## 1
Amino acid sequence: MTGAEERAYTTIMTTMDRLHRKGLLVREKDGLAWRYTPALGKAEFEKALADGLAAGILQAHGEVALSAFVDATAEVDEGLLDQLARLIAQRRKGRR
């Protein structure tokens, strides 16, 4: 390997290790090497990402963010407002 290839390999392995420590990758020993796989499926990852973004925005901006979200929902698709109302009703029913 040339110097550039070695640096690229170590950079990749450092990145993979960091993703493992953050819980985004699962690793298992395979001989002398590590075998990495995603910790979450695509849908699970997207849900976790959306949950984190929504929570952060709501914590930072509260009622203003909530109002903006409802307005944006209506602008994208009026039918989504009905779906939002159903999700709210389901959540409230589940907490009782």
Note: The radius of gyration is 21 Å.
## 2
Amino acid sequence: MSWLDICALEEINPLGSRIVLGPSGDIAVFRTADDEVFALDDRCPHKGGPLSQGLIYGKRVACPLHNWQIELESGEALAPDQGCAHRHEAKVENGRVLLALRN
């Protein structure tokens, strides 16, 4: 696995996101209020809504189309909804946001 340097942490607003073009489509990189970063495919498992445009609270994002609640750590939808947005590994190192790329 290799790590792609996305940007400086401060370039993503707290409770905001950044879109990265991945090999299978857009990846949303989210920043929580506690400066944790998470990355999910930018498609809600329900109707494909852009998760990057959703509201972030705690370690969840609400899809802007139908308000599905998605866990940032796992990509899983909260019950009673069912589905999963593919999760990508992301981390902050030396103030930089890094996204894992599978070799």
Note: The domain at 2-101 is CATH 2.102.10.10 (Rieske Iron-sulfur Protein).
